[in-house]
Amino acid sequence: MIKVATYTTVADLDLAGISALYSLTGLALEPLAGGAANSSFRATSDQGTHVLTILDNHDHASALRLAEHTEALFSLGLPTVEIVRNAAGDSVSLLDGKPILLKSWIPGRSVDELPPDLLPAAGALLARLHMLPTDRVPQLPAGTRRLSPAHEAAIVDFPDREFAAWLTARLAAVRDREAGLPPRAQVISHGDVFTDNLVVRPTGDLALLDWETVSLDSDLLDLGMTLLGLANAGGRLDAGRAALIVDGYTKTRPLTPADLAALPDHTEHAALIIAFHRYHRHNIRFPNPAKAVIHREMIAFVDSLEGAGR
C-alpha cells in the first residue's frame, strides 16, 4: 500500500471548538498554501486576522517546544510571528487530539523568488538571528538540520543506486573538508530560509517564519542553506544573488576570508541534506511520482558550486 501524507482540511475542523478555545467570534478559515508537514489557515474573526496552524506531525510535547522557541525569538525582537495564547493562557491547544497554534497575522506578501533588492535584507536578517544570545532561547536542540545516523544508514537501501552512491561519496568528501576547519561556535540557526518562510512586509522589510528546524549549529551551514534557498536559479547557484545575500550578512555580522572560503563546502553540505530529504520523502515515505526525481536538482546545484570560490 502506498502511503500518502495526511493533512487537515477546513471540513475537518470544529470551528465552534476553536472559537471557544480562543474566545473568538465570527470565525472563518481559509487554507494557506505551502507547508510540507502541517496545515495552516488564515483565521478571520471579529477579533482580527490570525494564522491557525494544525501541527499534523507533532505531539503535544514537540508543539510546546515549537511554541516556546517562537515566543523566545519574538521576545528578542526578531521579526516573526507572535503566539496567541488561548483563553486558559496556554501557548498550545489540543483539538481532537491534535496540537494547534494560533499566531499573529503578518501583513505582507509571499513571493516565489525574492527580488534582488531584498536579498541583502535576507542576509542581514539571518545575521541578526545568528547574533542573538543562545541562552535566551530555551531547550534548543543541536544540529537537527543535519542528517542523523539513521538517515545515513537508510541511504544504502535507496533503490536509486546511482544517487545513493553519489550522495554517500559527496557526504564523505564534504565532511573531510569540514573536519580540517577550526571549530566554530554554535549559533541559533533557522535551517530553512527559503521563500515560503519569508514575508515581504508593506514597509519593504522581511519577516521570518517557521521555527520547526531551529537548532544550535554552524553559522556557515545555515548561511549555506540560505544560499540554497534564495540563490538557486533553475537548479544552479546564481553567483550574483549569492553575493548580495552574503554582502547583507557580512555588513551586519562580519566573516573572515577563511570563513568565506569555507562557505561553498557548507553550501554543498546543505544541498546534500536537502537531496536526501527530497528523495526519502517522495520515494520512500510518501511515494509521489510527480516529485520522484526532484532530488536530482541538487546534483546540478552541487556541480554549479565547483567555481564558487573553491
UniProtKB/TrEMBL annotation:
Pfam families in the cross-refs: APH
InterPro entries in alphabetical order: Aminoglycoside_PTrfase, CcrZ_PhaseVar_Mediator, Kinase-like_dom_sf
Organism: Actinocorallia herbida
Keywords, alphabetical: Kinase, Transferase
Domain named Aminoglycoside phosphotransferase: residues: 29-254
Designated name of the protein: Homoserine kinase
GO MF term (any one): kinase activity
